[in-house]
């Protein structure tokens, strides 16, 4: 069967356009360093890359949350450390005041120092982070611990944070994974008594000041010293629980970083080109294109004289 000139020309042009299209595709890939540049290049791969991008964005959001929460717990730890130091100093003062070698004037001096440490304690428990109080439960904009006085004398500490049993803030640190923070300051109040006879850190401190005024060495050396230990233990326990949360957060941070690296690696496999391989493919298509042009010149220049 005789192949017509028009068929040869048409076939040549189709092949030439195909070669040119491939050259342009590889040029674009080399320019963008990406395997696909539009949905039509590979719809399935583009869909997978978009899903990976969304996962990376979500993971980056968790990364920010985890970092902020770690900073938050570090601030809490520092505050509880200062509160512990203040309570330990108060315990030391109670122990000193219980000594028979102390007189009324000595105990009044000790009383003034205890009062100063009470403010150091409440200042520590009123620590805020980014404008939010860290032990106020859900009432993060309200100063949680307030010194109460009557006629100029200390009578206790009032807690103004969340009081309805929902005082814990939670943070989502991974898909479907949340962590509760130790923000309920009621735990630091250490309520042990009843409505009729309350017993907490505030009443303990008030009782210390009363015993100092009364020179009650029996109360100072006995009940009050024991209660001081309990209040210190309570703060230390909360600090320990905050430390456990911190450890869990740092572990979550490591998992988050690993997850990001894995996602980026998978995305790179699907999206990024192998530069050496792609350049070789481009060179081959460029050579094929030039060869097609050379062949086409002969085909299209054929005239009737070639058949005589």
From TrEMBL:
Record-stated family: Belongs to the bacterial flagellin family.
Q: Does the keyword rRNA processing apply?
A: no
Q: At the top level of its lineage, which domain of life is listed? A: Bacteria
Per the database record, which ranges form the Flagellin N-terminal domain? 6-140
**Molecular-function GO term, any one:** structural molecule activity
Q: Where is the signal peptide?
A: none
Keyword Cytoplasm found: no
InterPro entries, per this entry? Flagell_FlgL, Flagellin, Flagellin_C, Flagellin_N
Provide the Gene Ontology terms for cellular component: bacterial-type flagellum hook
**Name of the protein described by the UniProt record:** Flagellar hook-associated protein 3 FlgL
Compartments where located: Bacterial flagellum
Q: Name a single GO biological process.
A: bacterial-type flagellum-dependent cell motility
Mark the transmembrane ranges: none
Q: What is its main location?
A: other
Q: What is the lineage of its organism?
A: Bacteria, Bacillati, Bacillota, Bacilli, Lactobacillales
Q: Report domain Flagellin C-terminal positions.
A: 227-308
Q: Which keywords does this chain's UniProt record carry?
A: Bacterial flagellum, Cell projection, Cilium, Flagellum
């Amino acid at each position: 069967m005789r192949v017509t000139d028009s068929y040869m020309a048409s076939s040549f042009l189709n092949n030439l356009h195909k070669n040119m299209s491939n050259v342009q595709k590889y040029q674009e890939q080399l320019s963008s360093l990406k395997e696909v540049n539009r949905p039509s290049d590979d719809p399935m791969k583009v869909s997978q890359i978009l899903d990976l991008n969304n996962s990376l964005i979500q993971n980056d959001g968790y990364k920010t949350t985890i970092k902020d929460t770690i900073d938050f717990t570090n601030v809490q730890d520092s505050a509880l450390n200062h509160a512990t130091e203040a309570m330990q100093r108060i315990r030391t003062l109670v122990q000193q005041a219980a000594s028979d070698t102390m007189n009324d004037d000595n105990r009044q001096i000790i009383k003034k120092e205890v009062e100063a440490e009470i403010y150091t304690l409440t200042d520590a428990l009123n620590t805020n982070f980014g404008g939010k109080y860290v032990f106020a439960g859900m009432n993060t904009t309200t100063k949680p611990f307030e010194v109460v006085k009557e006629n100029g004398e200390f009578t206790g500490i009032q807690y103004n944070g969340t009081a309805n049993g929902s005082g814990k803030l939670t943070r989502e640190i991974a898909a479907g994974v949340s962590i509760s923070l130790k923000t309920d300051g009621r735990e630091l109040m250490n309520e042990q008594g009843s409505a009729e006879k309350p017993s907490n850190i505030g009443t303990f401190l008030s009782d210390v000041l009363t015993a100092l005024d009364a020179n009650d060495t029996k109360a100072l050396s006995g009940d009050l010293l024991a209660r001081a230990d309990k209040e210190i233990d309570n703060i230390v326990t909360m600090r320990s629980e905050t430390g456990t949360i911190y450890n869990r957060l740092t572990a979550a941070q490591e998992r988050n970083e690993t997850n990001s690296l894995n996602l980026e690696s998978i995305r790179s496999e699907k999206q990024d080109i192998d530069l050496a391989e792609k350049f070789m493919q481009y060179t081959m298509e460029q050579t094929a294109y030039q060869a097609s042009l050379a062949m086409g010149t002969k085909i299209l220049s054929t005239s009737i004289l070639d058949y005589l």
